[in-house]
Amino acid sequence: MQYSLGPILYFWPKNQVEEFYQQAMQSSADVIYLGETVCSKRRELKTKDWLALARELAGKGKQVVLSTMALLEAPSEVKTLQSYCDNGDILIEANDVGAIQLLSEQGKPFVAGPAINCYSQHSLHRLLKLGMQRWVMPVELSRDWLEKILNGCDELGIRNQFEVEVFGYGYLPLAYSARCFTARSENRPKDQCELCCINYPNGRLTRSQEGQELFVLNGIQTQSGQCYNLINDLAGMHNLVDVVRLSPLSADTLDWLEKFRENENGQYPQIVERDCNGYWHSIAGMSLATP
Amino acid sequence: MELLCPAGSMPALKKAVAEGADAVYIGLKDDTNARHFAGLNFTGDKLSKAADYLHQHGKKLHIAINTFAHPDGWRRWQYAVDTAVDNGADTLILADLAVLEYACDTYPQLDLHLSVQASATNTAAINFYQQQFNVSRVVLPRVLSIHQVKQLARQTMVELEVFAYGSLCIMAEGRCYLSSYMTGESPNTAGACSPASFVRWQETGQGLESRLNDVLIDRYQPHENAGYPTLCKGRFEVEGNVYHALEEPTSLNTLDLLPELMQCGISAVKIEGRQRSPAYVEQVTRIWRQAIDACARDSGNFNPQPTWNQGLEAVSEGSQTSLGAYHRKWQ
User: Which residues hold [4Fe-4S] cluster (chain A) (predicted)?
Assistant: First the structure.
């Protein structure tokens, strides 16, 4: 099993990002995704900074992937995407079909990110023909769904032509909107957001009126209210999953990476009673299935 | 500019035709479309009757097959495409790469529109679907501002369709899993958002409560209008403040933007609401027909009549309407 660090989904100051990747460089992560995937106004690091960071990490033996924005609206955002796609040697994670278009035009391989809608072996087959190397399963799908897709891929004779990655730890990206919910939570219009996301390094928690944790507001992205955690499900991933993704939080992510490795065969399970894992078990995502 | 109206039943379809729809869109009676609700949609005999009725009246039939095929249900999506074609659909509205591929390869002459569920919001994505599957039209998600809609219209040769009126989905469609996070079922996997089977109403000492899979979505005082607990429209708490953290219960109404939409060459305006009653379809179609005709006659002096907006508000969610993301300030 390989482990990846997903792109940082939150808006952190530049020095915090750099500090995180200095530690990530020393960690046991096999694959590191980086880049801004949520909001084009978050420019603590510019495109050239991300590219420089990517090359530095690659120099340390990490497999590096540049992740691209999920919701592309303005022409300027497509232009930035184009500059990522033109970078030369670094693999790209496409989180919008627009990225697949720009990459496949150049005959470049790509990772199909979790925001690409691929729900069957037939869609996956099409992505493969377009240059997909690795498929990150949409977060709402289950182990059962994955197994059916991979059986279908066996029948199509394409099972060995791509890798499978699963989002295994962190707050799930669940939705993207035109509206900035963090700005709204501070009573600001999006155009005068003052980049307020930078004040919430793990997003802003939203509860029901009964205090139940429901969602995390992260700019235009809405995340799960509970941390998704598949650490106790790793043993059931063998022969299905090649890469497990941990989505960076402001603390402890790299400690969790080591715990994941230790429990790869189920020998060192963790208590995760505040977390959720429902999607993997074909039930409501917010639920927690216990063995 | 085409007026495209929804129908979940034959009576609704007839009302749409009677009030001046240019085309009507419907779904089949299964999870191949994103309004998979009990008692709704078309099958077998009713499907061919719907097609015949529309064609006799010189109108077009669009069939939405806009969910994502399941790994063990591929035949169902293929069958939906075949059935739609066999029964005389003029256009299919599709979202899934595999379903697009199948329809494009099997029926090369068939007119394909890209569903809003495919979430194409930029020129690169639009080019992708046009080049890969020869789609003739793209339905734009309700996340773009009017400025962005105009930019896209300038940059693409593909026809564009926008949502004009109806329930306001505030997330990029086809990329929202909030419903499955709470219930296990989402538009993409089950063809419905906030499914009715998970809804519960309860009168309590603190007010009328609406719940979705036991999660409290909202609590209403006696003077407040209670709305369906679509999960993004509840009142939640963020650090001590209780408010509509994502969106108020409101409907989209773009009557004010009609001249701009017409001027930038939008090919069709779509009315949301296949799950709504024939009376809703009748009312909304009538008003939009009048508005489009008035605007086409003299767009420079177009002003939505107060009676039109009142008529639309009367059938709106929460009895209020919004320009949604088209209006930058909403964002």
Answer: 39, 180, 193, 197
| Residue whose tokens read 């300030």 | B329
Is the CB of B331 less than 8 angstroms away from the CB of A139?
Answer: no
Measured from the Cβ of residue B154, the count of other Cβ atoms closer than 10 Å reads 11
Cβ distance of B68 and A101 shorter than 8 Å: no
Q: What is the ipTM of this complex?
A: 0.97
Q: Residue A289 falls within a domain, yes or no?
A: no
- Inter-chain CB proximity B98 and A126 less than 8 Å: yes
Contacts of B75 in chain A (CB under 8 A): none
How many other CB atoms sit within 10 Å of the CB of residue B4?
Answer: 27
Q: Which of B75, B94, B121, B140 should be substituted to probe chain A, the one whose Cβ sees the most A Cβ atoms within 10 Å? A: B121
Strand-pairing partners, residue B218, are B210
Report chain B residues whose CB lies below 8 A from the CB of A121: 71
Judging contacts by C-beta atoms under 8 Å, the chain A residues touching residue B128 are: 97-98, 100-101
Bridge partners, A286 (sequence order): none
Residue with tokens 């919001």: B121
Is position A286 within any domain? no
Tens digit of each residue's pLDDT (9 = 90 or more) over B223-261: 998 889 999 999 999 999 999 999 988 889 999 999 999
* 3.20.20.70, 3.40.50.2000, 3.40.630.10, 3.40.50.620: CATH of B2-168+250-330: 3.20.20.70
pLDDT digits 0-9 by tens, B192-223: 899 999 999 999 999 999 999 999 999 999 99
Flag if B181 and A172 touch (Cβ within 8 Å). yes
How is residue A138 annotated by DSSP?
A: P
How many whole angstroms from its chain centre is CA B37? 14
Total length of chain A = 291
A227 carries a ligand binding annotation: no
DSSP result, B138-206: EEPPTT--HHHHHHHHHH--SEEEEEEEEE---BPTTS--HHHHHHS--HHHHS-SS-GGGEEEEEETT
- Residue ranges for the known binding site of B for [4Fe-4S] cluster are 169, 176, 193, 232
